[in-house]
Design goal:
Blueprint: H1 4-10, H2 12-24, H3 33-45, E1 49-54, E2 58-64, E3 67-77, H4 104-121, E4 126-134, H5 147-153, E5 164-175, E6 178-180, E7 184-187, E8 189-198, E9 202-203, H6 213-224, H7 226-231, E10 238-247, E11 253-254, E12 257-266, H8 269-289, E13 293-302, E14 305-307, H9 309-322, E15 327-329, H10 341-347, E16 350-358, H11 379-394
Parallel strand pairs: 3-4, 3-5, 5-16, 6-15
Antiparallel strand pairs: 1-2, 2-4, 6-16, 7-14, 8-12, 8-13, 9-11, 10-12
């Protein structure tokens, strides 16, 4: 029996070197030219069949097992964030204003390590592996959809048809050694909303001659805080956050327009429907009462990530024998963060798991998307070992 943890430990210098190289040279979504080029080169060096330009800058590697069987897709996201790094690490980003602040550099490095491990193990595989290196998980970045949907449009789930998916995330909210593999919803569905109010502008000294969109906006923003607290059951979960406001240009001018927007996060489709209905009624009701015209646009970003019970149970069993010293958590761990892997898991059953990566003793416990974000690189060993072993177990 292959000792996947030992293999990952032996390959740690490679994994670490790749991760640090990606960290020094981060690239935003749909701009992962250098990153994708390195991924393709590394996969081709293993003799793995490579397809480039899937979903613009995505890369897909195809490994055919020695025996017939299903196809499992392993997803690894590659993109960075528009954040200026403040870690003072020896491998600090050299791209001004761009940083790997969510661990995707680690994900990509683990993906290449998994490819090395499974390539050695391919004679034991009863089925195929698709290594999916995805661009633009963090957002649309000027496109009509994110990287997962873009890759799906380009046929990543076809030829051959994908039967199962596995994906993971380094998780700095939890310590090194913690691993969560749980069935059901694990990450929230997300929407963004944009509200534009049109009134009648005028002089700030004569408000009675205007229709003030500022006061209407403030009342709507305040009322939106009641959607969760007064409409959603305390036993359910939802978030409505106003995150941007664009109103006015001068101290003595009541503006013609007011614009603001934010995000909605839910797990349950019925809760999502309720929240959207309440936002619509509040927006249009208050705007009408204040004499303003309201335009509301709600854009679906991702559905919730929901894990298949049967596949998850198998991954849990894999985690127990592959990472015997890990703190395996099989409870329903939930995060309001969103993930576009949800689109693939809507089409194909899968399991998305978390690998604890913080280390407070080393001051590596800043949250994701923070300028000081970094993680304990030993987490790369746990993630690579579990992903490789889980794929192999699913193709027995």
């Amino acid at each position: 029996m292959t000792d996947f943890l030992k293999k990952a430990q032996e390959l740690f210098p490679y994994t670490q070197a790749m991760r640090r190289d990606f960290h020094v040279h981060p690239e935003l979504g749909f701009k992962e030219i250098r990153t994708g080029g390195i991924v393709a080169k590394e996969l081709e060096a293993l003799g793995i069949e490579v397809t480039k330009g899937v979903g613009k800058t995505g890369v897909v590697g195809f490994l055919e097992g020695a025996k017939p069987g299903p196809t499992v897709l392993l997803r690894f996201d590659m993109d960075a964030l528009p954040i200026t790094e403040d870690t003072n690490a020896e491998y600090t980003s050299e791209n001004a204003g761009v940083m790997h602040a969510c661990g995707h550099d680690g994900h990509t490095a683990m993906g290449l390590t998994v490819a090395k491990i499974l390539n050695e193990y391919k004679n034991e595989l009863a089925g195929n592996v698709k290594f999916c290196f995805q661009p633009s998980e963090e957002g649309f970045n000027g496109e009509e959809c994110g990287g997962a949907e873009m890759m799906m449009r380009d046929g990543v789930l076809d030829s051959p048809k994908v039967d199962m998916t596995l994906s993971m995330h380094l998780w700095n909210e939890m310590p090194l050694g913690w691993v969560n593999v749980a069935s059901g919803p694990v990450m929230a569905g997300a929407e963004e909303f944009h509200i534009k109010l049109t009134g009648k502008g005028g002089h700030g000294a004569a408000p009675h001659t205007t229709i003030d969109p500022v006061t209407a906006a403030m009342q709507i923003i305040n009322a939106l805080q009641t959607v969760v607290s007064r409409n959603v059951s305390p036993l359910d979960t939802a978030v409505v956050s106003v995150t941007s406001v664009d109103i006015g240009t001068a101290f003595n001018v009541i503006p013609q327009e007011a614009k603001f927007g934010g995000t909605i996060r839910t797990f349950d489709l019925n809760v999502r429907k309720l929240v959207i209905e309440r936002i619509e009624k509040i927006t249009h009701g208050i705007a009408e009462a204040m004499g303003c015209k309201a335009e509301l646009k709600i854009v679906r970003v991702t559905p919730a990530v929901a894990n298949n019970a049967s596949i998850t149970e198998k991954v849990q069993a894999t985690a127990r024998h592959t990472l015997p010293n890990a703190n395996l958590d099989t409870s329903g761990y939930l995060t309001m963060g969103a993930e576009d892997m949800a689109f693939m898991q809507e089409k194909v059953d899968g399991c998305y798991f978390f690998i604890g990566s913080n280390n407070k003793d080393k001051n590596l416990d800043y949250s994701h998307h923070h300028p000081k974000f970094d993680f304990d690189e030993q987490a790369l060993v746990n993630g690579a070992a579990l992903m490789a072993s889980a794929a192999a177990d699913l193709l027995k």
